[in-house]
Write a structure and sequence with these properties.
Two copies of one chain form a homodimer. The first copy, chain A, is built from nine helices and 17 strands. By secondary structure, the first copy, chain A, is an alpha/beta fold. Chain A is globular, with a radius of gyration of 19 Å.
């Protein structure tokens, strides 16, 4: 905590006028429902959020994070099919998706910035990122995150890892521990301060445990919104945007009496959360992430759709979560 | 040419005292002959070069590049096995290997630097890198680089790409165009100047062609030593080390009258090259890369083994290629 505070202060001192926005792109930024996830589809879909981010980079310093669910799922599927190639642990597959999606985002952003003309050019980097988790995190005792292919019941006894029964069938299950710190945070701060647009923390980051003087990867998946909130805190971001597949946060989502929330404060958000309004696997962690960011000193947090990133920053749509402490 | 020269001059002006070493790691830094390439093998093998590089980082600024042959081959094999997942183009697979190997190198280097103590800590980044090639490069007319799985003769007519007959059987063949420029060069210069150790240009970089205001990936593989030489030139590196599986350059390699070369100048190297002493698929491009680096103003170039990186820098082993112009 003290360390995070120290970093924030030093960032505040060094910071030039432009505010830092961290944008966490949901899986549908790359692969939409019903799509198989060809390269063409992913590049085409990315133009929607990335063209907005290119324009925002005129007025803000930018950090982009992203999910990797379907991409890491595809790599797991491929590993299962192919017996002649050694299976790689999950941490390495997450690293592969950081390479893949980092490249796709960076090259799309390159093109969008070029389209805006010479003035819009900025240095860009896509970074490999790993995130420290605590080996004593209770999540390791009760793995809950289903990943990869669907198995038949008779197959699961032959698998070298635990499975759970899901709606689709049996799936491998891994722990989803909480992010403690982003290993590359100082590097990311330095880059952002030097005017770079940074793409990082893909898939929530590669989960590692620190043993004495080494880092060691673990079979786990960190929620990308929680990692993004941790990064936003550690780099001293001003604005945190969670871009997903709905226009904003709603109570009784999809029901006839659905109620769209334009603004809620962290106190209300925590109450709705504990009352079970937001499902654990979808809106829950996004609300949690927004609260965590604001409680650590972040200024503004938004949950909105991939299509509405710019509009949300302008206050025209989406849900803004505001700190209860700032309402007097 | 002019642009490279301009960059070099500006780099020279800004540079602090420490020289920049660019180290290009060959495939055997990760997977040795006879190994299948498990994650454990790759992490274990990396300790040999990376522990040396950690020590060198005390006295030099460091850039690390690396090959990706077996890793991208495995991804191609997996794609072939698994029909339920959309096949991704080669550029995306190269990006995936940059993620994978970048993570493996960075985390190994992290551990090695931690083992050296607090003074040895430096900021590290693994970057996605793409490299511009010329769509008119004659290599595209005559693809020559075999990649991926081995096919039987009766299979090849069903494949959507050209193949060639190799010793092992039929294989897919792609172009190996020359690198024109590393897209992230300015970013890499800025990072190195700011004291970062940079891991980049994996697998020779993701090959892209520039069409007007966009970059577009192409099915090709750029030789990693030639890309590394281009990067060394563009960032104004002082020393270029090609680390491979032999102690240095030899004439009549593996023959009874093999002659190990401790030092050769670029003029001699070019003569040996045109006399066919160095095979195109192995030592040839390394010699070419060393010559290219020195002709563009680089100071010192070495070809040596993964085990002997430090010793070569100290002049104790390996082959040093020196510029003919500097011998008076």
């Amino acid at each position: 905590m003290y360390r995070g505070a120290a970093i924030r202060t030093s960032v505040m001192k060094k910071r030039s006028r432009k505010e830092i926005i961290l944008i966490a792109l949901g899986g549908n930024a790359l692969i939409k429902k019903g799509e198989k996830g060809t390269a063409e589809e992913q590049f085409r879909n990315l133009k929607t959020p990335i063209s907005q981010i290119a324009r925002l980079s005129k007025d803000y310093k930018i950090i982009i994070t992203h999910g990797n669910g379907p991409q890491v799922g595809n790599l797991l599927l491929q590993q299962e099919c192919c017996t002649s190639v050694p299976k790689l642990p999950l941490e390495i597959l997450v690293a592969q998706t950081q390479g893949q999606i980092g490249y796709m985002i960076e090259s799309t952003l390159d093109s969008e910035l070029m389209a805006l003309g010479a003035d819009a050019q900025k240095p860009l980097v896509s970074l490999i990122s790993y995130v420290v988790v605590d080996e004593k995190d209770p999540a390791f005792l009760k793995p809950s995150k289903p990943i990869g292919p669907v198995y038949r019941k008779e197959e699961i006894s032959t698998l070298p890892y635990p499975t759970i029964k899901t709606e689709k069938g049996y799936r491998r299950v891994v722990a989803s521990p909480r992010p403690i710190t982003i290993v590359e945070k100082k590097e990311i701060i330095s880059l952002v301060e030097n005017g770079f647009i940074v793409i990082c923390c893909g898939g929530g980051g590669i989960p590692v445990i620190r043993y004495g003087r080494t880092f060691s990867g673990v079979d786990a998946v960190i929620d990308k919104d929680l990692s993004s909130a941790k990064l936003a805190e550690e780099v001293g971001a001003d604005i945190f945007i969670i871009a997903t597949d709905v226009e904003g946060v709603a109570l009784r989502y999809g029901k006839p009496d659905q109620e769209f929330l334009r603004t809620i404060n962290t106190q209300e958000a925590m109450e709705y959360l504990s009352d079970g309004y937001f499902p654990p696997g979808s809106m829950g962690p996004k609300i949690e992430a927004a609260i965590a960011f604001l409680e650590k000193g972040g200024k503004r947090a938004f949950i909105t759709s991939i299509r509405s990133i710019e509009a949300a920053v302008k206050g025209l749509t989406g849900t803004e979560i505001i700190s209860s402490n700032s309402i007097q």
